[in-house]
Amino acid sequence: MVLPGLGAYAASKAALNMLSATARRELAADGITVSTILPFVTATEFHQTLRAGQVVSAADSPVHSADHVAAAILDLIHTGNAETSLLPESLTTAH
């Protein structure tokens, strides 16, 4: 996502995604599966601290519970898929 003011944060996440994709290929021969989850806003204490209790989300975008994100992670573990996204469709389509 392109979010003005969060360039360094976005760049670090992009680097982590590439590192995970590379590790997936490098470790596959050893039977190790690496998967990536792309969450959106998750209702956790992180947002309590960061925004003094306000969870900020786009008007048409959901705030996911930690349980919802955990279920998606478990699904990744079970399927072994490379990636899953919880991002709203409005943020994943090219404009």
TrEMBL record:
Keyword list, A-Z: Oxidoreductase
Stored InterPro entries: NAD(P)-bd_dom_sf, SDR_fam
Top-rank lineage group of the source organism: Bacteria
Pfam family, one: adh_short
Entry's family note: Belongs to the short-chain dehydrogenases/reductases (SDR) family.
Alphabetized PANTHER family for the sequence: DEHYDROGENASE/REDUCTASE SDR FAMILY MEMBER 7B, DEHYDROGENASE_REDUCTASE SDR FAMILY MEMBER 7B
Full protein name: SDR family NAD(P)-dependent oxidoreductase
Biological source species: Streptantibioticus ferralitis
